Amino acid sequence: MMHRFTTAYRATSTHTAFFAVLLLLFCTMPVKAAAQQVGEYHIKAVFLTNLTHFVTWPENVDRENAPFIIGIYGPDPFDSILDKAVAGEKKNNRPLKIERYHNLQELDPTRCNILFIHDSKVDEWKAIQSRLANYPILTVGDTSGFPEQGGMVNLIKNGQKIQVEINHNAVQKSGLTMSSKLLSLARIVP
Amino acid sequence: MTVNQHSKRKFLYGSVFSILLPLCTFGSSGAQTQQPEDATLLYLKGLSIEELLQTQITSVSKKSEQLFNVAAAVTVITQEDIERSGAQNIPEALRLVPGLQVAQLDGSRYAISSRGFNEYFANKLLVLIDGRSVYTPLFSGVYWNAQDTMLEDIERIEVIRGPGATVWGANAVNGVINIITKNSGDTQGGLVTTKVGDYIQPEVSARYGGQIDDKTIYRIFAKGFHQKDYKDPEGGDAHDAWESIRTGFRADRSHTDKDTLSFQAEAYDNEADIRSDLANIGTPGWTETNGTEKYNGGHVLTTWQHRINDTSDIDLQFYYDYTWRDQVVAEESRDTIDLEFKHHWDPAGSHDIVWGLGYRWTSDDIDSTQYVSFDPDSRSDNLWSAFVQDDINLIPETFWITLGSKFEHNDYSGFEIQPSARARYKPTERQTIWGAVSRAVRTPSRAEHDFTAYLGNGSVNIMVPAPSPPFPPGMTVPLIVPANAYVYGTDDFDSEELIAYELGYRWQASDALSFDLATFYNVYDNLRTLEDGSPIISLNPPSVIIPAYVGNGLEGNTYGFELQGTWQATDTLKIIAAYSLIDFDLEYKDPALRGNSISDEQLTPQQQFQIRSYLDLPHNLSLDAELYYVDKLEDRDIDSYLRFDLQLSWQAKENFRVSVGAENLFDSGHQEFPERQDILPSEIPQQFWLKASYTF
């Protein structure tokens, strides 16, 4: 009883032997592409990054050299994932950049290109809409009912996958154009 | 353990690895980057948008509890902190926590405490690894040299300074440390690391994570190291070499949308040399003794998390833990079974309720030595517990109060109630002010009730009746007789109690700069003391026992604060600085004893300071530096020290990383803790190391 584990690996010389066996075991294991462990916000972050390629912004907004801004309004559910996802990415030669807004005054609608609205801020939709005025800003959320209220793109966890919902009327009204490929993958609401 | 054996083993290690490592390198392909998160993103970015939307979510949300909103003094050490600080083991990583007292005694032994009362058996800090308590009920404390795992597989270490008893239960008096390892999903693929240095010769660890079926993932790891002797304060061999081997397995299963299961098992075996200054038996004085502490153990742990609906989930956890330790003064084996249930309910409205039930059974078997004996030598104890806590949002998004209490019954001190009231106020999105009043107790250990410890011997003069005849009846004469001093545990020893008052402030000054201040005023009662008893004289043969009894004779308060500032100076440079101060005002309850020294006041540095920087350089290099200042222990002749560590890392390839590091760059060695009879201190040395990690 008392030496239950001791007897298993007691003699110090067996340590080395144990290591050797273990290492051999690892080395001879068939090496395959490691299965990736994927979180909800990993997928959302990469989707948000890719979204830039499936949406066309009006010409006059494509100012050269200025960074292409993805804003997050409210708490950041991505932690640092979105920052890592956009690192090194470009849209029309403009580097993608993340900005975080804690209140609407910090949001400059002439700079922002994509706005991710945190769940806790969707209630302020009316105020957000008036702040965005008619600037061509792609609004993205992950709250159920978001596109029904007038949001453009919604990322909803459906089982173990991410489902995209798009309010196409809202997109068109803002002057943005969305690729048919993206539309074909989404559920169009309302 | 002789020097010869050591060098022979070193040779064996060396040759085995030099043969095997190249084999590993040739045998693998399909490189992934070092950090799993980056690897995941890289993989996802390589998918088409259709594939992306078909990808299964396999791990829980990265959304971590927002520490900014917690009404307690919390610090989180992330995997990045562990990696960048070059920490050799868990105790070294804990140096990163502002105000935590971490003192290394010798090669393998640490004294770690929060908000004072540091000791080798520091008894007011509760430590859990993946929800499993590693606090020993034998002496009340943590054997830090048995708490290890593959450092790369630690997700984070959450440290709460101050009481956490309402949720965590007894002994979470001055702090709780939660070591949380990664989900198997975050440790997929292979990883091999080796480290060699002046003292680490070598450390090797290997892990492989894979998939059992489309819902179940696992990892298996093994780690071993040999650390050679430090120096004693006189410059001789400290006889504190350390050897450890450990292996573990973990599997995580997303059984259904609503159920996740986790299972882990681990076993270890260690030998840690030790120098002691043990009191002679039979003759006066002490003798320095070289010994070896042997210890091993293992556990199995399983958890089931079930989401009932969007507002309600339950957690069920079971573990069995076995430890065996042959320390110089006693040999102990212990079995523990623990079952916990937790229900989290977030009803519509302003409440967020957590409640739970727990049961723990622990049973020991102790072989006494001439130094320490236990009566009874085997004992089983039960611990029943329940807790409830409600987080109430009184003003939406602005003001919350958290009320709760733990109710426990243990076999030593009976019922214990440990309530707390916490409040937090967010005047703006970027500021949190919090306050708390809590009660916590430190329950008696097995030793404090049941042990007898031999302290030493000498001789005393006693008056004995003179034999008559020849002397007249009733006459007494002086006689020099041997005297032995013992400490006795007593069943009267009761819990130590704390009422803590805390106040804190967090301020996100800008996106790059934040501050965290926590202050405390702790009021203690029934703190442990040793109380002298009347000498016990026996006449046949003539001898005297000078007894001391474990008692609750101390009270008083402590106060202080911890302040941390974090500054993301640029995209590539982060600087963290922290300062902490603690002061003691303890007093013997018995006025006759006042004026005597109080060891609880002497073993905690009054001030600590640290500044750390993480710097990313071009060409995949990073340079990280840490400077720690720890105040002197004046009454114990331990000088203050300044420790400077530096690490340079190079991500040579996506799957290969090399680091070199230096610890204690400013001095050649210093002592961090005073000597104890059972552990003679070593000089904590300057050391250099080289580490390589390879992923596949």
Give the key terms.
A: 190 residues, alpha/beta, Rossmann fold, two-stranded antiparallel ribbon, disordered N terminus, B: 696 residues, Maltoporin, Chain A, 58% strand, globular, signal (chain A)
Report the sheet-strand fraction of chain A. Answer: 15-25%
Oligomer, anyone?
heterodimer
| Biggest chain-to-chain interface with counts | A-B, 63 and 80 residues
**CATH architecture designation of chain B:** Beta Barrel
The CATH topology name of chain A reads Rossmann fold
The span between the termini of chain B is 37 Å
Structural class of chain B: mainly beta
The number of domains of chain A is: 1
Number of separate domains of chain B: 1
CATH class of chain B: Mainly Beta
Radius of gyration of chain A using CA atoms only: 24 Å
Total number of strands of chain A: 10
Q: What structural category do the secondary elements of chain A indicate? A: alpha/beta
CATH class of chain A: Alpha Beta
Described by strand count, sense and barrel closure, the largest sheet of chain B is: 22 strands, antiparallel, barrel
Low confidence ranges of chain A = 1-36
Q: What is the H/E string of chain A? A: HHHEEHEEEHEHEEHEHE
% residues in beta strands of chain B: over 45%
Helix content of chain A: 25-40%
Mean pLDDT of chain B: 88
GO molecular function, one term (chain B): siderophore uptake transmembrane transporter activity
Domain TonB-dependent receptor plug (chain B): 68-176
Main location (chain B): membrane
Membrane topology (chain B): Multi-pass membrane protein
Explain what this protein looks like in three dimensions.
Chain A has 190 residues and is of the alpha/beta class. Chain A has a single domain (40-188), classed as Response regulator (Rossmann fold, 3-Layer(aba) Sandwich). Chain A has helices at 4-8, 12-28, 40-51, 81-86, 125-132, 146-149, 168-173, 180-185, and strands spanning 55-56, 68-73, 90-91, 94-101, 112-117, 138-141, 153-158, 161-166, 177-178, 187-188. The N and C termini of chain A lie far apart (68 Å). Chain B contains seven helices and 35 strands. Chains A and B meet through helix 1, helix 2, helix 3, helix 4 and strand 8 of A and helix 1, helix 2, helix 3, strand 8 and strand 9 of B. Chain B: This is Iron complex outermembrane recepter protein. Chain B: InterPro entries: Beta-barrel_TonB, Beta-barrel_TonB_sf, Plug_dom, Plug_dom_sf, TonB-dep_rcpt-like. Chain B: Belongs to the TonB-dependent receptor family. Chain B: Residues 239-665 form the TonB-dependent receptor-like beta-barrel domain.
